[in-house]
């Protein structure tokens, strides 16, 4: 199920564990030659300081050829770029895939539809990793 919050964050449900969703995302990004700038292991860092947190990973990725024109048109958009996908399990073990809605970023930074097209692929990538069963990878 897809839900969009008031703050422009899209949440997708996934039936798969967070680690499996993460591996699928990384494989897609590699296949598309999209740069992965960082994978932040929030739950791992929490464990390192003696705190418990459900499996939570933030993947920061992008393509400078696509993102730079947005930042040139609206320098503050660098606050939201590169693109990010959050993969997080809740207390019941359900996994959510979350990202900033490109339409929200368009409004936030007054971007043209053409520029928003540069980042629209995040919607398809997120939908794919949330919905695709592991057996069909």
From TrEMBL:
Q: Name one Pfam family in it.
A: DUF302
Q: Which domain of life is it from?
A: Bacteria
- The positions making up the signal sequence are none
Gene3D superfamilies given in the database record: TT1751-like domain
Q: Which residues form the DUF302 domain?
A: 40-102
Protein name per its UniProtKB record: Uncharacterized conserved protein, DUF302 family
């Amino acid at each position: 199920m897809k839900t969009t919050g008031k703050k422009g964050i899209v949440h997708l449900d996934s039936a798969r564990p967070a680690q499996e969703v993460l591996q699928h995302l990384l494989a897609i990004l590699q296949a598309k030659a999209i740069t992965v700038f960082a994978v932040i292991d929030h739950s791992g860092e929490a464990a390192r300081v003696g705190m418990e947190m459900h499996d939570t990973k933030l993947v920061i990725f992008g393509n400078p050829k696509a993102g730079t024109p947005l930042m040139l048109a609206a320098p503050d958009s660098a606050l939201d770029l590169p693109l990010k996908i959050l993969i997080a399990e809740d207390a019941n073990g359900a996994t959510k895939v979350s990202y900033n809605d490109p339409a929200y970023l368009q409004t936030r930074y007054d971007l043209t539809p053409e520029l928003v097209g540069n980042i629209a692929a995040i919607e398809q990538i997120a939908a794919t990793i949330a919905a695709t069963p592991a057996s069909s990878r």
